Hints:
Blueprint: H1 2-23, H2 26-29, H3 35-39, E1 45-48, E2 64-66, H4 67-72, E3 80-81, E4 86-91, E5 119-120, E6 123-128, E7 134-141, E8 148-155, H5 161-167, H6 170-178, E9 185-192, H7 205-209, E10 224-231, H8 234-242, H9 256-265, H10 267-270, E11 276-283, E12 308-309, E13 312-313, H11 324-333, E14 336-342, H12 347-356, E15 360-364, H13 372-384, E16 387-391, E17 398-405, E18 411-412, E19 419-420, E20 428-437, E21 447-453, E22 460-466, E23 488-491, E24 494-497, E25 501-502, E26 508-509, H14 516-520, E27 535-538, E28 541-544, E29 554-555, E30 561-562, E31 568-569, E32 572-573, E33 578-581, E34 584-587, E35 591-592, E36 598-599, E37 617-620, E38 623-626, H15 645-658, H16 667-671, E39 674-679, E40 695-701, E41 707-714, E42 720-725, H17 736-778
Parallel strand pairs: 6-22, 8-9, 8-11, 11-14, 14-15, 39-42
Antiparallel strand pairs: 1-2, 1-3, 4-6, 5-7, 7-20, 9-10, 12-13, 16-19, 16-21, 17-18, 17-20, 21-22, 23-24, 25-26, 27-28, 29-30, 31-32, 33-34, 35-36, 37-38, 40-41, 41-42
Helix pairs in contact: 6-8, 9-11
GO molecular function: C-X3-C chemokine binding; collagen binding involved in cell-matrix adhesion; fibronectin binding; integrin binding; laminin binding; metal ion binding; protein kinase binding
Main location: membrane
Domain Integrin beta subunit cytoplasmic: 759-805
Amino acid sequence: MExxxxxxxxxxxxxxxxxxxxxxxxxIKANAQSCGECIQVAEKCGWCTDPNFLKQGxxxxxxxxxxxxxxxxxxxxxxxxxxxxxxxxxQDKPVxxxxxxxxxxxxxxxxxxxxIIQIQPQKLELxxxxxxxxxxxLKFKRAEDYPIDLYYLMDLSFSMKDDLENVxxxxxxxxxxxxxxxxxxxxxxxxxxxxxxxxYISTTPxxxxxxxxxxxxxxxxxxxxxxxxxxxxxxxxxxxxSQQQISGNLDSPEGGFDAIMQVAVCGKDIGWRNVTRLLxxxxxxxxxxxxxxxxxxxxxxxxxxCHLENNMYxxxxxxxxxxxxxxxxxxxxxxxxxIFAVTQEFQPVYQELKNLIPKSAVGTLxxxxxxVIKLIIDSYNSLSSEVILENTKLPEGVSISYKANCKNxxxxxxxxxxxxxNISIGDEVSFDIAIESKKxxxxxxxxxxxxxxxxxAEEVEITLNFICECECSLTGEPVSKECHNGNGTFECGACRxxxxxxxxxxxxxxxxxxxxxxxxxxxxxxxxxxxxxxxDCVCGTCECKKKDNPEERYSGKFCECDxxxxxxxxxxxxxxxxxxECRVCICDPLYTGSACDCSLDxxxxxxxxxxxxxxxxxxxxxxxxxxxxxxxxSTCEICPTCPGVCPEHKDCVQCRAFQxxxxxxxxxxxxxxLHVITVPERENLPQPxxxxxxxxxxxxxxxxxxxxxxxxxxxxxxxxxxxVVKKLECPAGPDIIPIVAGVVAGIVLIGLALLLIWKLxxxxxxxxxxxxxxxxxxxxxxxxxxxxxxxxxxxTVVNPKYExx
Length: 805
């Protein structure tokens, strides 16, 4: 199990190492031939401009690498070209703080106050380096008393007859209600029915005049009519709407999409301002969309242009209905927020449509439109309480990301990264925006994009400048002598060759790259291998191949050297204590050996007693080699078969200190290695911290059962030193008299105790017997005053017939 875990650990380590090396090789693998090409590879890539940076066998692209790698290769920081992107704010006007007085009236005349700013900043300039995102913060604050344009677009098919009556007074009533929201409100009105071709309407002459039944007076059918452009005169709205008449058509879906398209694109005819634009779409039916026009023989797609003449849509018979996507685009381009006021029956249909159109809302219209004012106000509050950012089309290779910082610390990410909800008047939210370029555009020209909140006219204009060349290229020397007779431009420390020329110095033509004469210069010792099979012969000079790992490289005139094929130790190149140069380890100080795996430092062999290998071995390459095979451990401190220090030296200590023990006859011969020092008491033995070497406290017993105490230690000069307590601790003999007296006293006491116990048991037995006798006596049946064996001599006979007379 342990081996399996070890194998998995090693495999994961190898995979991680390979992944890390693969990530770091992007700059090298790009094979950049100029500084401009290099900085477009990735943000981490830099270009060394030092003319003397390249070594023999290095290609020009070796100048492009990660910054740390270039510095390790010997390029000075000041000689590395690594331009960075930047963000510059060009227009940063603060957002508008508009207030009302306590009565709800504006303090100033809002019509003269035309500059309303809800988004900040307004203009930026970004310098983009490939792979390096530029970030900035965009702030949005919903202004109070913001102007509103509302256009009421109504279905005037016959089913909406009762609704028209309630809309006739909508102008003044809605004006009054909107005073609580804004003091600058304008309202307009338009109507629609259907395309004026079969099968949508009846084309008989009578039905073209009056499409309704004979007893109903209806106006001629039409596609879309702009009845009233936006105005602040509510009474005018009432007057013109009161003059409208119901019309009719044949099918149930209506041509409302034609009308919405014209309202969106005919800004001048409608009178839209750069303020909040609301379009109220009121109907009790479904809708036709792109493709339905084929039923009437109309096949041309809607062109999305304005076709109003005398406020009437004149091309309904020529262009098909617009598609939903086309409507979404035009509504978004013109910052129009749509409110669908529809009956309960068609709620599900328009709810699905609302999900496809950003910044739109759906309200349930009563059967006669009596609740239209409340519906409009509720829908407006819902739409204005959300902020959704959108951007124009991005240039190729450019990406953008958002992070919303909404109310109450809510952070929007994922699908809601550009949205904030429940925004009240005066609330301020912000968005962190990052723009990143993956490559330079083909024309390398600046591009402009715009970011805006949906439904608002304000926008942020961002100019994108792309860093496609290094600054050092501006000072390049065309037709330079450094580039083989002027065959290139010397810039950023290297030659940028003219077309048709190659080589580090542009010394070769592309037509003569591979010739036998030039290849001969790339063969070592007239061998057969070109550049040792580790490079390409370019213009008679070896350009060594690159490895995926940027730390590994081939070098040398014939690419015969590398820095990764040296001896290894512990799976590390040169043991991790040197560098590999041309397949030979150059060891760091205090290391030697072919793999730099032999340390000259003996500190790793120093034992706790400050002795090399505890005096039991030698230090070789930083590792103890124990001379006595029974010892082992990093400093020869372990002896599994040894009895221990104290028992090992017991006999020698006993004979040297007390002239006793098994070795007393051969003491000098066998125990002369000990230096014995006697001390009077145990307190005089060496204590921890008092010596410069370690020692062991011992307690042993001699043949007479006497204890003796000593310490054993090895001095720094390998002298074995023993401190012995001079006085033995022997057990004292027994005292006979107290023992005998104690035994006799014990016997006497035990005898008395036994007698007392016997006496107690007899008393208990007698008492039990007496009690038993008394009980039996109480239970006797005879009379105690008469002899029980006495019989009387008198016999009495009674005559049975005697009646006592």
